[in-house]
Structures are given as C-alpha cells and as structure tokens.
Amino acid sequence: MEENKQIELRSEKVRNIIGQVPPVLLRYGITIIGLSILMVVGMSAFIPYRSAIEMKVEVRQDSSGRLDFTGFIPQSAMVKRTEFRDVSIHSASDFTLPERLAIGVISDTVHLSPDGAWHLSALIPEKDAFRNILLEKPITIPAKINLEEMSVLKHIFICMGLSSN
C-alpha cells in the first residue's frame, strides 16, 4: 500500500533549502565577475582612443591657382591645443581635396561671428597635388581636428576628472 505523503512546501526545512544560495556558486560567481571586470579594465588600458573636435575649413584659390586652406578652430577647443595633431577633411564635393592637413600657425586673436568664437589657422596640405581644381568662389567644408591618441582607460580618467591631463 502506497502511502501518500504530502510534501509541505511551506515547512521550515523546505524554505531553508530553497532560500539558501549554494556557497560554491556564490564563491566562484563573485570570483568570475571580479576577474571579468579586471580583464575589461586591463584591456581598456591598451585599446587606443583618438578623439576629434569639429571645425570648419575654408578653401580659397589665389590668382596663381594655389589652394589656401584656413581652419576655423572653436574657442572652446583651444584648451586642448597641445593635443592637436592634424586636420581631417570630410569633403563630399565633386573634386578631390587632401584628406589630411597639418596645422600651421594658430592666431591668438579670437574672431567673433554669428556662429561663435573662432581662432584662425593656416592649414598645410600633406601633398600639393591639387593644381587641377578651379574654384569660382571660396567654399567652407566640415573637418575635424584629430587629437593625440590615448588609451580608453586614460580617456575615461580624464573625463571623470581623475587625471591631470
């Protein structure tokens, strides 16, 4: 004769077994999570990060046909002046412009316009192979100032204000 034993789901013994986290799972779970966080932080110290600052570039052509590039650097970007590397042009026009420009002399004078406060800079193309372009009037195109490369971890520290750079 089979005895029907009803298991009491609300008894104290059952609640202790169900409500208890196995110590092995707890110990190794914390270790795995801790190692994962350390691994992500360690990898971020080696992953490169290069930030950029939006700017405008005006392209003019002089009477000899040479292109002159003038950069309009926002006043707010001047705090990172020591980190400036070069300028990348993002031209969607029909003619080819240099992709990279070196930053020449940056004016100390702030120029005010309806768009904001700017410092002007002469920009020098890396290659002077743009003689077959004829501009009827000056054009303004978007560009970016590429800043010094740093690790993701250093960038996070700088953004959080934990670094002196």
Describe the protein:
It contains 3 helices and 9 strands. It is of the alpha+beta class. The protein has 2 domains: 1-48; 51-148, Beta Barrel (Elongation Factor Tu (Ef-tu), domain 3), CATH 2.40.30. The longest helix is centred in the N-terminal third of the chain and has 22 residues, at 23-44. Strands 2-3-7-5-4-8 form a 6-stranded antiparallel β-barrel. The chain has helices at 12-18, 23-44, 152-160, and strands at residues 48-49, 52-61, 67-74, 84-89, 100-106, 111-113, 116-125, 139-147, 150-151.
Overview features:
alpha+beta, 2 domains, elongated, Elongation Factor Tu (Ef-tu), domain 3, 35% strand, 6-stranded antiparallel barrel, 3 helices, 165 residues
Quick gist of this model?
It is built from 3 helices and 9 strands; from the N terminus they run H-H-E-E-E-E-E-E-E-E-E-H. The protein has 165 residues and is an alpha+beta fold. It folds into 2 domains: 1-48; 51-148, Efflux pump adaptor protein, beta barrel domain (Elongation Factor Tu (Ef-tu), domain 3).
- Helix count? 3
What is the helix fraction of residues, given as a range?
10-25%
- Rounded mean pLDDT is 83
How many individual domains?
A: 2
Radius of gyration, whole Å: 30 Å
| Low-confidence blocks of residues | none
Largest sheet: 6 strands, antiparallel, barrel
Strand order of the largest sheet: 2-3-7-5-4-8
CATH architecture of the largest domain: Beta Barrel
Structural class: alpha+beta
CATH third-level topology of the largest domain: Elongation Factor Tu (Ef-tu), domain 3
Proportion in β-strands: 25-35%
By CATH reckoning, the class of the largest domain would read Mainly Beta
How many strands appear in the DSSP assignment?
A: 9
